[in-house]
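Dear all,

This email documents one entry for the complex benchmark we are building for the journal club exercise. For each entry we list the sequence lines for every component of the assembly. Then comes the predicted three-dimensional structure of the complex as a token string, followed by one or two observations. Please use this as the template for your own entries, and keep the labels exactly as they appear.
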Amino acid sequence: MTTRRTLLHATAQGLTLAATSLLGRSAWADLPRGAADAAALDTLPGKKALLRRSFRPPNYETPPEYFNDVITPNERFFVRWHLASIPQIDARTWRLAVGGDAATQELQLSLDQLKHDFEPAELVAVCQCSGNRRGFSDPHVPGVQWGAGAMGNARWKGVRLKDILARAGIRKDTVEVAFNGADRAPLDVTPAFVKSIPAWKAMDENTLVAYEMSGAPLPHWNGFPARIVVPGWTATYWMKQVSVIRALAQPLTSYWMNTAYRMPKGKFPVVDRFVSQESETSTPITEILVNSLITQPVDGARLAPEMPVVVAGLAWDGGAGVRRIEVSTDGGRTWNTGELGTDLGRFSFRPWTFSFTPGAPRHQLIMARASNAQGTTQPSELIFNPPGYHNNVVQKIAVEIA
Amino acid sequence: MKSPPLIWLGFSATLAASVLVARASGDESRVHLAVGAGSELVQSRCAICHSLDYIPMNSPFLTRTAWEAEVRKMIKVMGAPVAEPEVAPIVDYLSAHYGAE
């Protein structure tokens, strides 16, 4: 097998990534060999180098070192598209159409209207692909073979979706609110990427139509000029280049709701339900599970004995709020509580640290696990599922004390 | 239940203002698949909708049955223009060069 250290010998930009902290040991399986061999740093127009998983549609993940910051830089924010025809949008002519059979009127909103005719709202939230870490599934499952970088944290500014829906006269019989974006498949017969969320989630004050990302317009590849932001829920609902919003009196019929992005009921400790799209056995994915990432030290690091070391990382969940980080420096035999850092809100990455002093020379496994306000914590074994969603198994990194 | 295209019909004009770009990004000609029986068929059919790096990325762990399921999903769900007699040679190629070991 290809080792983790050779995995990121990506030289497209003359860069070589030696850091392998995201690739873990033991708890995270290796990426499939073909995915590891093909991974390369590559730069999309308007972005900086990301780890390319596929050219078309473009799927690029954030390299490990950018998770040292709590806010992920826009130009390093991961890129994920389902359909390969992605238009360049002219902000002057772009319009957001709002309506639906459960709305009393149709609106056509310009970007200027969004910015000036509504009260702005702002929050920090993690955008995480449902399949983040799919490549570490054991056994492997088909799909984009993501490592740990199909996620990012940004300060989103825009308009509350509920304010837009109120202006369109959303009716009480609204079951779901659906979104379409400007992207299209090369073939007309391919199902359009349309998604919906329950009416209660659409009316949540935190759900936004965002036109700004960490103080700048959204990058083209992240959904310029506006995208849906559904704090706490996985990124499949965060429609990029949103062009249509519809209040629906009936559940949406769409391959991307009825077949894709679903999982067996009861498999995961999720709290939020999406009742109108549930079947007897399966449910659409909803909120992000509590999770964490060790960013320092990196896997394979050599640490000096008797010298204090700071273990650092990020923790996040689906909006209940991270309450605790525990770190083990002996492969999971004992756990110690770490220190949570700056709180940018319950939907944000939460930085954490834990200090310890390694003893005698040896190999050591460092692990971290987060818990949230609902009392949920990360599992020590992967909750396997065929689509490879919700991988929040505890990460282990190996360091050498020498 | 209504069919999805109807929901969006009144709004297709929104898209007219924008220019569709066929190729999303990058130089995918850098992707080279293994040479062998069926490789040209695979390239001509699969690359209509996605770059060919999807194939090595999903290797080598899919059994022949799993590769066939992927091909049939592309046909039935995504509308890939693959005729029934082409399925076997495509699946043969994928499992021979990118199948589980």
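Observations: The first helix of chain A runs from residue 4 to 7. The CA atoms of residues 92 and 112 of chain A lie 9 Å apart.
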